[in-house]
Amino acid sequence: MATEQTEKLITISTKAAEKIKEFMKEEAESPEYLRVYVQGGGCSGLSYGMGFEKAPEEDDIVMEENGVKFLVDSYSIEHLKGANVDYIESLMGSGFKINNPNVTKSCSCGSSFSTE
């Protein structure tokens, strides 16, 4: 059973929330939730992923921030506690950035990380 979470384990910036809502409107499937997750891979062991979902899975924690409902599974939440999802626009490009206080090591390309 999915769990509603009132404590802020992960935050989403206002700018990121605006972009997420914009991208959700463009989806043909009309997703209800953003999924934020961690998966194995990359040279440092873990990498981030994001996608859209219509409904939570059994082990998901459901949160809401700045009008965006999002899901995090029980494995990923252990690596993402205290993280902030932001949207960055710069001369080098634009995209989502996850600022994670749990990262102890990251690879030089910046696409993977490890935690304690």
Topology at a glance:
Elements: E1 3-4, E2 10-12, H1 14-26, E3 33-40, E4 46-53, E5 60-65, E6 68-73, H2 74-80, E7 83-90, E8 93-99, E9 103-106, E10 113-115
Parallel strand pairs: 1-5, 2-7, 3-6
Antiparallel strand pairs: 3-4, 5-6, 7-8, 9-10
Poorly predicted runs are none
Shape: globular
Instruction: Report the sheet with the most strands, covering strand number, pairing sense and barrel closure.
Output: 5 strands, mixed
Helices and strands, in order, run as EEHEEEEHEEEE
Give the assembly state of these chains.
single chain
Count helical runs.
Answer: 2
- Radius of gyration of CA atoms, rounded to a whole number: 14 Å
Query: How much strand content do the residues show?
Result: over 45%
Helix content: 10-25%
- Domain tally: 1
Give the number of DSSP strands.
10
Mean pLDDT: 84
So, the CATH homologous superfamily?
Answer: HesB-like domain
Q: What's the arrangement of strands in the largest beta sheet?
A: 1-5-6-3-4
Give the N-terminus to C-terminus distance in angstroms.
Answer: 28 Å
Structural class: alpha/beta
The third-level CATH topology is: Hypothetical Protein Aq_1857, Chain: A
How does CATH name the architecture?
A: Sandwich
Report the CATH C-level class.
Mainly Beta
